[in-house]
């Protein structure tokens, strides 16, 4: 009896296949073929643009697609919200349509599907925050072949034709590492808490830190552990470190874990606080302010990792679509196709008050940020 | 009267609901995305679904035998890392074939390890494969700590763009799986499998080699996970030790949407095949419905829950009507 099902299914598949092969014109792959469908009753007022990719869709407006494979972080939430905000400016000017956003927790295959759906929706440009450094290459090349402008934000890719927009992760880490080494006077015992081992951003950052510390032979790294870019894990790792090495002179960590690490130190309530590396998040700045009340000598640094690089990337995409020429001499990175964005905030005790001012009307999770204006983008990167 | 018809229908044909859902989802997707049946779009979709499809078929066979295998994602990751590190972007076709063969052996071995613990040592399947899953994922990370490596571009392009008989490559793979399954079901092993999954004690008393059957389901699952790992490597063209981690739970979801019972003894391969495609198309539906970004995840999860709960809800309605 269940054999029957199999037979039915096989029969169905065969029929399905025959119908498909019958009604599929052997189309050139770059066309957007309109296949006859039983769409007698369109459920929604779908305005699917049916034009080839190069020609801007309806009334000359550009459509920009976003692909984001990870949503469980404030960074990504802020990124998406800012993208929508910046695009609203261009919509008001009549330059772009509503963003097409593909954003959900997914794996490599899922992000390939996101990109394919964006292509199927005939977007003119794709901003992708890649979840894998190489796994999307072939799919992105397909998008390029359709004449779509592809920009990788936040994570540098090495695909010819794909532009990158982001901060220099290595330099970013070097800034705080250098500050730590100098503040310690070039000597002392420290520990490190890193992000996901093997994640490209983490690898670049840890290389930067190692390079800086190589210049300070009297600074000893007692231990390194991973806090997985997670606040709670960072706190736990720091607690363990404090138990093992009570006389730490300082520690280096990254965004996502610095809040947890500092909380662990605060829980231990030392007479003199170690020199610590923080993060550009409002919650951290508030903790910092609190610690200063108990130990006025407390020193830390927060280097912002701005989600604003993505909306800046959006501005770059719009200007490229408008036919403006990129000044390639201004680009850098692995393949010379990277727009390297300057870090907008480096907070120390000197400018803590100004940073806290920004945080006043923001939630605790807000990340210190910076989005380049359209004029700045034009002046910095275009001819 | 109607109740018995529906109930017996569902009991006899567990994949029937999957088929109904499958057709509904295809129709909705086709309405929202008019170009769905264009060869390019169809192939783009199917090449993304195929790795999970292979995994879900293996998972279903374990589930029919009354077990569960949550190490499959780890096995797929190992295969991905083996191919990406050993073949390389500039590797020869000879190497590719050699390591595809080694990959299949590795999959069988990993499955056999699971099978040994569960069938011979009689450990709980869920705990055992949870633990071995970590071992496999850890081994993958050991092989390839940083994402990278790859397979020759020609191999990836073959997987991505080949359309035999003017149809996506995945259709041929599905046809082969269905044919093999059709044959296997008619063999003694096929009957044993359902007997073991349905009532292991009774099967044992009627001289069914229960241990061997259970053992073999994990070996099959390991082999399918290896095929899945090969497919995902060809899709992405590169290596990443994390690549399979999200696929395990999806393979179980696809199997259940396809009418495979978690309690064992019920299911087939047509179910998980349709279940995987249904799951993938749900993503497209959410994407093409133009729903606000912030609701995407919730919407997709709701569709899945409704799909899983629907047979039960229908039963409830029928009962009340009576």
Describe the protein's topology.
The complex is a heterodimer of chains A (383) and B (322).
Chain A: H1 2-23, E1 64-68, H2 74-92, E2 100-103, H3 108-120, E3 125-128, H4 137-145, E4 149-153, E5 163-166, H5 169-183, E6 188-194, H6 200-214, E7 219-226, H7 231-244, E8 250-252, H8 258-268, E9 275-277, H9 282-294, E10 300-303, H10 309-321, E11 338-340, E12 346-347, H11 352-359, H12 374-381
Chain B: H1 2-12, H2 15-32, H3 39-64, H4 72-86, H5 93-120, H6 125-143, H7 153-161, H8 169-186, H9 188-198, H10 200-205, H11 210-236, H12 247-257, H13 270-288, H14 296-321
Helix pairs in contact in B: 1-14, 2-13, 3-11, 3-12, 3-13, 4-5, 4-6, 4-11, 5-6, 5-11, 7-11, 9-11, 12-13, 13-14
Tell me about this structure.
The complex is a heterodimer of chains A (383) and B (322). Chain A has 383 residues and is α/β, with parallel strands linked by helices. Chain A folds into two domains: 58-167 and 307-343 and 372-381, Response regulator (Rossmann fold); 169-303, Rossmann fold (3-Layer(aba) Sandwich), CATH 3.40.50.2300. Chain A contains twelve helices and twelve strands. Chain A has helices at residues 2-23, 74-92, 108-120, 137-145, 169-183, 200-214, 231-244, 258-268, 282-294, 309-321, 352-359, 374-381; strands at residues 64-68, 100-103, 125-128, 149-153, 163-166, 188-194, 219-226, 250-252, 275-277, 300-303, 338-340, 346-347. In chain A, strands 2-1-3-4-5-11 form a six-stranded parallel sheet, sandwiched between helices. In chain A, helix 10 (309-321) packs across helix 12. The longest helix of chain A is centred in the N-terminal third of the chain and has 22 residues, at 2-23. The model of chain A is unreliable at 6-57 (pLDDT under 50). Chain B is mostly helical and 322 residues long. Chain B has one domain (46-288): ABC transporter involved in vitamin B12 uptake, BtuC (Orthogonal Bundle). Chain B contains 14 helices and no strands. Chain B has helices spanning 2-12, 15-32, 39-64, 72-86, 93-120, 125-143, 153-161, 169-186, 188-198, 200-205, 210-236, 247-257, 270-288, 296-321. In chain B, helix 3 packs across helix 12 (247-257) and helix 5 (93-120) packs antiparallel against helix 6. The radius of gyration of chain B is 20 Å and the shape is globular. The mean pLDDT of chain B is 91. The interface between A and B is large, with 62 and 74 residues.
């Amino acid at each position: 009896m269940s054999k029957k099902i199999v037979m039915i299914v096989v029969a169905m598949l065969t029929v399905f296949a025959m119908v498909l092969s019958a009604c599929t014109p052997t189309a050139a792959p770059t066309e957007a073929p309109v296949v006859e469908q039983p769409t007698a009753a369109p459920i929604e007022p779908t305005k699917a643009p049916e034009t080839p990719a190069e020609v801007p869709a309806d009334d000359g407006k550009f459509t920009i697609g976003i692909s984001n494979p990870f949503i469980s972080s404030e960074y990504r939430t802020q990124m998406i919200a800012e993208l929508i905000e910046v695009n609203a400016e261009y919509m008001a000017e009549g330059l772009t349509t509503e963003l097409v956003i593909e954003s959900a927790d997914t794996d490599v295959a899922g992000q390939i599907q996101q990109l394919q759906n964006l292509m199927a929706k005939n977007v003119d440009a794709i901003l992708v925050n890649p979840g894998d450094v190489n796994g999307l290459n072939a799919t992105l090349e397909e998008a390029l072949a359709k004449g779509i402008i592809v920009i990788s934000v936040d994570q540098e890719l090495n695909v010819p034709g794909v532009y990158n927009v982001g901060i220099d992760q290595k330099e970013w880490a070097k800034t705080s590492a250098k500050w730590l080494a100098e503040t310690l006077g070039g000597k002392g015992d420290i520990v490190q808490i890193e992000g996901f081992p093997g994640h490209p951003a983490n690898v670049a950052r840890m290389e930067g830190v190692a390079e800086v510390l190589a210049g300070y032979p009297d600074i000893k790294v007692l231990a390194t552990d991973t806090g997985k870019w997670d606040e709670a894990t960072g706190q736990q790792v720091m607690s363990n470190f404090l138990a093992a090495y009570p006389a730490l002179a300082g520690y280096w960590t990254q965004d996502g874990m610095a809040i947890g690490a500092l909380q662990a130190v605060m829980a231990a309530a030392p007479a003199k606080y170690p020199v610590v590396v923080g993060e550009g998040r409002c919650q951290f700045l508030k903790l910092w302010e609190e610690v200063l009340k108990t130990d006025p000598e407390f020193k830390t640094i927060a280097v912002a990792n701005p989600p604003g690089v993505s909306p800046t990337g959006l501005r770059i995409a719009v200007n490229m679509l408008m036919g403006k020429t990129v000044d390639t001499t201004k680009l850098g990175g692995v393949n010379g196709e990277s727009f390297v964005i300057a870090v907008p905030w480096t907070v120390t005790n000197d400018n803590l008050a100004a940073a806290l001012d920004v945080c006043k009307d923001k939630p605790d999770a807000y990340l210190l940020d910076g989005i380049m204006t359209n004029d700045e983008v034009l002046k910095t990167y275009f001819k | 009267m109607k109740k018995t018809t529906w109930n017996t229908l569902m009991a006899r044909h567990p994949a029937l609901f999957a088929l109904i859902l499958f057709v509904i989802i295809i129709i909705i997707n086709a309405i929202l995305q008019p170009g769905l049946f264009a060869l390019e779009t169809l192939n783009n979709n199917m090449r993304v679904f195929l790795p999970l499809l292979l995994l879900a078929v293996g998972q279903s066979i374990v589930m029919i035998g009354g077990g569960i295998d949550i190490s499959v994602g780890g096995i797929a990751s190992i295969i991905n890392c083996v191919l990406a590190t050993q073949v390389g972007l500039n590797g020869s076709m000879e190497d590719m074939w050699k390591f595809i063969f080694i990959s299949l052996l590795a999959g069988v071995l990993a499955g056999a390890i699971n099978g040994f613990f569960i069938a011979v040592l009689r450990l709980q399947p869920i705990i055992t494969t949870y633990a071995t899953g970590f071992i496999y994922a850890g081994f993958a990370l050991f092989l390839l700590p940083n994402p990278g490596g790859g397979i020759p571009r020609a191999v990836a392009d073959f997987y991505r763009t080949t359309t035999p008989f003017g149809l996506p490559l995945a259709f041929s793979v599905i046809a082969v799986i269905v044919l093999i399954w059709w044959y296997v079901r008619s063999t003694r092993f096929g009957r044993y499998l359902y007997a073991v999954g349905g009532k292991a004690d009774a099967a044992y008393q009627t001289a069914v080699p229960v241990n061997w059957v259970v053992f073999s389901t994990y070996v099959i699952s390991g082999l399918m996970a290896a095929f899945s790992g090969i497919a995902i490597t060809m899709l992405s063209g590169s290596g990443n030790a994390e690549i399979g981690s999200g696929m395990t739970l999806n393979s179980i979801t696809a199997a259940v949407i396809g009418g495979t019972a978690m309690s064992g003894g019920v299911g087939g391969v047509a179910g998980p095949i349709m279940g995987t495609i249904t799951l993938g198309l749900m993503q497209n539906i959410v994407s093409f419905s133009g729903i606000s970004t912030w609701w995407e995840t919730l919407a997709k999860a709701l569709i899945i829950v409704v799909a899983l709960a629907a047979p039960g809800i229908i039963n409830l309605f029928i009962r009340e009507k009576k």
